[in-house]
Amino acid sequence: MQTTVSLWPLIGVAVIIVGFLLRFNPMLIVAAATIVTGLAAHFPPEKILAEIGTGFIKTRNIPLIIFLPLAVIGLLERHGLRERAQAWIGGIKAATAGRLLIVYLLIRELTAAVGLTGLGGHPQMVRPLIAPMAEGAAEKRFGKLSDAVRFKLRAYSAATDNVGLFFGEDIFVAFGAIVLMTTFLKEAGIVVEPIHVAVWGIPTAICAFLVHGFRLYLLDRKLERELRGSNVPTSQAATSSATVAPSQSAAGDKA
């Protein structure tokens, strides 16, 4: 006999979505979603607090795990990691920001698909390497970049990491979300093997790669149209001023 599964605890997901849309503090959003989910599941307040405390005790080593790599990355940045990355990518003539990010998207999806999710990430890969390399590739082609273009390239770099990780890890059969989905379906009376869920994540990952890869291709076209058009008049103006100056000085000499 199947038991009815209450879907009210899923309201915590709606709290997270609304909180991020309104750009509230992430810690506040997660805490609010935890409390709302517990109340929707008819947990007493003392049990909710006990679960929060238990989770904190179990994960109290996480700050140490996070801070140590960040300290190493900070030291590398201080000693010129970003500058070396920009200089290296600037030496590759065929490199563009879009092509670089497409390659990183492919690598990120493939490594996440085999469970190597820690090889990328915003603090350890995007900030010190990928974003500076994208900026270096753009500077090589278009010269000095404005702050708006730099922020756009950084946003695309972060989005590429997110897309590659999110859709790549769904192919890994031991991914926690796959286990959660199969367990939830089993409780609802639907038996699904984890390998089947992982296999059906492959078409989604391919579509995500094609869609975001096309967006990165359009990024190159947009930068080419905007920056090349703005830099050509500047160089022409500099050339014309350089040619006018000698003629003016010659006219002054004649006078």
Primary descriptors:
single chain; 255 residues; mainly alpha
Query: How would you describe the shape?
Result: globular
Strand runs, count: 0
Name the assembly state.
single chain
Largest sheet: number of strands, sense, barrel closure:
none
Q: What is the number of independent domains? A: 2
| Alpha carbon gyration radius | 26 Å
**Terminal Cα span:** 107 Å
The string of secondary-structure elements, in order, is HHHHHHHHHHH
Question: Mean pLDDT, rounded to whole units?
Answer: 81
Residues in helix, %: over 70%
What's the total helix number?
11
Describe the protein.
- It is built from 11 helices and no strands.
- The protein has 255 residues and is mainly α.
- The chain has 2 domains: 8-58, no CATH class; 70-228.
- Helix 1 packs antiparallel against helix 2 and helix 6 (97-113) packs parallel to helix 8.
- Residues 232-242 and 247-252 have low confidence and may be disordered.
Write the layout of secondary structure elements.
Blueprint: H1 11-21, H2 26-40, H3 45-58, H4 62-78, H5 81-90, H6 97-113, H7 122-142, H8 147-168, H9 176-187, H10 194-199, H11 201-254
